[in-house]
Specification:
614 residues; alpha/beta; Alpha-D-Glucose-1,6-Bisphosphate, Chain A, domain 3; eight-stranded antiparallel beta sheet; 38% helix; globular
Length: 614
């Protein structure tokens, strides 16, 4: 087909794409745009190659270089193969590992990626079944491969897919690897010979690690679980849903490993389903809206605890029946407090040396672990947002002799009544055998904690209150505003940095001096007023906005932009001392401060910001 859009550069890109793409459906999509002269759509699709975001590619499955499809997967993997050959002399002996979830095209994408590697004589461990994302970082560590790839879009809508990359240490890739893989991909856009042949499973360089990894993974979990008779004899009933994802058989094996009675499955969601047919969003972070069927199943079966994984089983949501008959869906921060307490309790029982124990949380998560660490005497570290940072830092600390007990990223959006209807970030890393969030092992540890609390006449909710009574209430509130004008976003943050009409003069208080700011950290320009030299300890990035205000009364408030959405997010937490036992008063103070922070710092009316949809 002749290509003449009036833009020679666009014409060249489209002609190359049609020449290279062997997927008839995708080719037809582009050809239809040419027939209707939809130049605007073509220009948008061909403007740039799909770029690495959070450790990989993710996007809608459609034709064109800025979307997820056969050709972009081939191109990305050709670039990755070339880059691995540059980085490692032994990549042709150690190879890579590839897994995939149950989304549309995941299996095919995994096989096409495999073909690119074996074309360069790089061996591939290709799983023969759908696996949870945590299996890939675990496999990289255990099989000592040079990289790992998981084909998944996690909890994105059904139209999306993704390509998540792990480096030789098992952690998600960070710079410069993401940038270098993209650069090598741009040098290898034309598919290699046999690139479209996805019949790779019988190839001499391809092997299936499933049985071996199952054994290794659950051997590790077996050593971490108590596996005592309480687990088998408990009257506690667990209801479980994988939300149409891959988690069911793996959580089943985890329950068997830890000697639990079988969970009660949410039958309508227990099998992988790329349509995610019973939910609006396949994301347990959305709280009640995604858990409706689980709540109904639990109620029918007199079950008091609900466990839910997201479709690739790296996140965990939990709900517990209350004496009132209502259900409490725990926020990520609350689960972080519970699992952190449990992992410390278990380590202490095993005689863990406090001086060599460590826990990690991201900047936007509750600082409950920091408070516990200060009280109990182990190390706490804060990292940038995302498990790629927490895992990489954890692996560094492990090399320094620390035992990594736990890491998490969690937050809480505004609760409506007792049932939290919207959550953010429910990722947990129990130990560092999997240097990433792991919803399978987290489900096992959470269940064992619930069993042992029940044996003592307590509950998850009850233990959470005990934690806050001992260490002080940590009350959080997270939300965001939409802003589609980058100039407005820049103006908001520059005003905060030049509050007194001079650089690095930030607001000193809220409400006319009622609440005093004692410190400011700006990870956009690298400033931290709390450090003797005024320089931030964490990595900085001028391409994103992120300022944290530390108040004298214990409030930490972070305002940041989203890397993928037109949002200005704010994460707040008020840390009260243990003698402040009135949680309602702590909550009232937080609410007042957050409202003032929004009004005075973000100025939503002046800046015409759009509130988060309820």
């Amino acid at each position: 087909m002749a290509v003449n859009t009036g833009n020679p550069e666009l014409d060249r890109k489209v002609e190359d794409w049609l020449k290279w793409d062997k997927n008839d459906k995708n080719k037809t999509e582009i050809e239809e745009m040419l027939k209707t002269n939809n130049v605007d759509a073509l220009d948008k699709i061909f403007e740039k190659q799909l770029e690495f975001g959070t450790a990989g590619l993710r996007g809608v499955m459609a034709a064109g270089p800025s979307r997820m499809n056969d050709l972009t997967v081939i191109q990305a993997t050709q670039g990755m193969a070339k880059y691995l050959l540059e980085c490692f002399d032994d990549v042709k002996t150690q190879g890579v590992v590839i897994g995939y979830d149950g989304r549309y095209n995941s299996t095919r994408f995994a096989c096409l990626a495999t073909r690119a590697f074996i074309s360069m004589d790089i061996p591939v461990y290709l799983f023969s079944a759908l696996v949870p994302t945590p299996y890939i970082p675990f496999s990289v560590c255990r099989l000592k491969t040079k990289a790992g790839i998981m084909i998944t879009a996690s909890h994105n809508p059904k139209e999306d897919n993704g390509y998540k990359v792990y480096w030789e240490n098992g952690a998600q890739i960070i710079s410069p690897h993401d940038k270098n893989i993209l650069l090598r991909s741009l040098d290898n856009l034309a598919p290699w010979d046999e690139a479209w042949d996805d019949s790779v499973r019988e190839h001499a360089l391809v092997s299936d690690p499933l049985e071996n990894i199952n054994q290794l993974y659950f051997d590790v979990l077996s050593k971490e679980c108590l596996r005592d008779e309480l687990n088998q004899k408990t009257s506690l009933k667990f209801t479980y849903t994988p939300v149409h994802g891959v988690g069911a058989p793996y959580v089943k094996m985890a329950f068997e490993t830890c000697n639990f009675q079988p969970y009660i499955p949410v039958q309508e969601q227990i099998e992988p389903d790329p349509e995610f047919s019973t939910v609006k969003f396949p994301n347990p972070e959305e709280g009640k809206s995604t858990l409706n069927l689980a709540l109904a199943t639990a109620s029918r079966n007199n079950s008091t605890v609900i466990l839910a994984n997201d479709p690739d089983a790296d996140r965990l949501a939990v709900a517990e029946l209350q004496p009132s008959g209502d259900w409490k869906v725990f926020s990520g921060n609350e689960l972080g407090a519970l699992l952190g307490w449990w992992m410390w309790t278990r380590a202490e029982q095993k005689g863990q040396n406090r001086a060599t124990a460590a826990m990690i949380a991201s900047t936007v998560s509750s600082k409950i672990l920091q408070t516990i660490a200060e009280r109990e005497g182990f190390l706490f570290e804060e990292t940038l947002t995302g498990f790629k940072w927490m895992a990489n830092r954890g692996l560094q600390l492990q090399k320094e002799g620390y035992q990594i007990l736990f890491a998490f990223e969690g937050s809480t959006r505004k609760p409506y009544g007792f049932l939290v209807t919207h959550l953010e970030a429910i990722g947990f890393m129990c130990g560092i055998h999997v240097p990433d969030k792991d919803g399978v092992s987290a489900a096992a540890h959470l269940s064992e904690m619930a069993v042992h609390l029940a044996n003592k006449g307590s509950t998850l909710t009850g233990q959470l209150q005990e934690i806050y009574l001992k260490y002080g209430h940590h009350v959080s509130l997270v939300s965001y505003y939409l802003c589609y004008d980058q100039a407005v976003i820049n103006r908001i943050f520059e005003r905060l940095r030049n509050f007194e009409n001079a650089p690095k003069t930030y607001p000193k208080s809220l409400m006319g001096g009622k609440y005093i700011v004692k410190g400011v950290r700006d990870l956009t320009n690298g400033f931290d007023s709390r450090q003797p030299d005024g320089k931030a300890l964490l990595p900085t990035s001028s391409s994103s906005q992120m300022i944290t205000f530390y108040f004298q009364n214990g409030l930490d408030a972070t305002i940041r932009t989203s890397g993928t959405e037109p949002k200005i997010k704010y994460y707040t937490e008020l840390r009260a001392s243990p003698d402040q036992s009135d949680r309602q008063q702590v909550q009232a103070t937080l609410d007042e401060m957050v409202q003032a922070l929004v009004d005075e710092f973000l100025q939503p009316t002046i800046n015409q910001l759009i509130p988060r949809p309820e």
